Amino acid sequence: MFDNLTQRLSGSFKALQGKNKLSEANIKEAISQVRRALLEADVALEVVTEFLQKVQTEALGLKVGEGLSPSQAFIKLVETQLTEIIGGENQALNLKTQAPAVVLLAGLQGTGKTTSIAKLANYLKQREGKKVLLVSADVYRPAAIEQLKILAKQIEVEFFETNGKPEKIVAAAKKHAQKQFFDVLLVDTAGRLHIDSEMMDEIAALQKKVNPIETLFVVDAMTGQDAAHTAKAFADALPLTGVILTKTDGDARGGAALSVRNITGKPIKFLGVGEKIDELEPFHPERVVSRLLGMGDVLSLVEEISRKVDSKKAEKSAKKMAKGQFDLSDMREQLLQMEQMGGMEALMGKLPGIGQIPDSVKNQVMGSLETTKMVAIINSMTPKERTHTKLIKGSRKNRIAKGSGTNPQAVNKLLKQFEKMQKQMRKMGGGKMQKMMAKMSGMPGMSGAEGGMPDLSKMQLPTGGNKFPF
Question: Which of 65, 366, 378, 381 is the most exposed place for a label (fewest CB within 10 A)?
């Protein structure tokens, strides 16, 4: 998300590069560029207008702090105002009520509502340790009920099923949740292809009967500013408490994320960042803006690594690397863990300055072999071949290529990459490697316990050309 907008904004800030001070003329030029970038990102016009009025008012009286260039001071101002306009700070789900806490999800068909409720159940179970019950009040679409039932089985949470009208179904589910000591009851509601009075009346009646502590509206990010206006229509009819923005991984513009809060007055609480069941993330406005302005999102990256990387396996690999005993089985483990975090592309997206690197350079860094292909090639090897790569010649290469659905050239490429890794480790030597590992384990925030976004005033911000802040 935001790839196009990040590039456009980076170009906007160039208007202030080389200037000794912020004047009305160069501020006007920079704001004009920012306006164009936001409108091209499909941000709602009223949001753009309000945002730029605030930026211009603040910029005219802005004093450039010591150690900052006018360009950096302006970026800091844009960061502050953008963070405020999209929500200020993360607003978590409010589950502080007598169990079960009822959370109702509403939205149009095709927005990913049913998938999102399963993702939310998985999130509450895995990250917050909640006992979750799922129920569908969509009596019009049997396929939706079956879909949620299958997803519930996949994530190993209980699904409540009974017949009747939506109000009776949810009332029965709530009674069951109370008896079985569930922490949270997640309710899926019927969607429509478009907003109509019948739909609104039905959801309003259900909401009044159920009285959920949270009513979340699910909306598709790829519909741009239309997403914000659809959410506004729901917010006018229902007492919404927040929004789940889905399909953000396919939205390069970011208009919905920047418009929803301002138009609806309701916070974005979660982002759907991929198709996998664990790809639902809490919405942190300050982190989103940091990524948007090319400063990365290191805190989210650290949290993701601490959550998804198997520390015992990582420690075992590190010790083997230090002794120069790293083999293809260890490489496979690293590839699988990287894949769990969305692959190299997802990891690079959270690093500062990556947005300014040309795609051709990024593709070279990520390598031409896909992670899944590399894992398939290693899977097709025998245990002995993984530890003794010199055995892999001629007929063995053909067998491995055939077994992995690739070709001998792909096998050769993987083996060459592995040999390069081994050579680098040998050059570093055991002592140097151990010292490096010790330093990494002592880095602030690596455990996920510490936090906070880096101080912008002390960062080397992107200034164009080939200077990247990392």
Answer: 65
Residue 464: per-residue pLDDT: 37
Q: What is the mean pLDDT of residues 449-464?
A: 37
For residues 333 and 410, give the distance between their C-alpha atoms in angstroms, rounded to a whole number: 19
Vertex 461 angle, CA 458 and 462, to 5°: 165
Look up the pTM and report it.
0.64
Q: Is the peptide bond before 100 cis (omega within 30 degrees of 0)?
A: yes
Alpha-helix residue ranges (DSSP H) falling in 238-292: 255-264, 285-292
Name the pairing type of β-strands 280-282 and 268-272: antiparallel
Residue 328 resides in a domain: yes
Residues 53 and 147 in one domain: no
Residues 186 and 325 in one domain: no
For residue 204, what are its two tokens?
A: 């309003």
Alpha carbon distance 243, 255 (integer Å):
15
Give the pair of three-digit tokens for residue 134.
């799922």
Residues of the domain holding 240: 101-293
Identify which of 301, 404, 308, 292 has the alpha carbon closest to the alpha carbon of residue 355. Answer: 292
What average pLDDT score do residues 70-74 get?
72
C-alpha distances (whole Å) from 285 to each of 83, 220, 263, 297, 456 are 6, 18, 16, 11, 16
The count of structural domains within the chain is 3
Residues 43/225, Cβ–Cβ less than 8 Å: yes
Residue 426: band (very low, low, confident or very high) from pLDDT cuts 50, 70, 90:
low
β-strand partners of 242 = 216
DSSP code at position 269: E
Q: Which of 104, 111, 270 is nearest to 194 (CA)?
A: 111
In this structure, is residue 457 part of a structural domain? no
Please give the pLDDT value at position 112: 85
What is the number of other CB atoms lying within 10 angstroms of the CB of residue 21?
11
Residues 224 and 352 in one domain: no
**How far apart are alpha carbons 132 and 59 in whole angstroms?**
48
Q: Are residues 241 and 341 in the same domain?
A: no
398, 408 Cβ separation under 8 angstroms: yes
Most confident of 162-166, 254-258, 348-352: 162-166
In sequence order, what are the residues at sequence separation of 6 or more whose Cβ sits closer than 8 angstroms to the Cβ of residue 108? 191, 192, 193, 194, 195, 219, 230
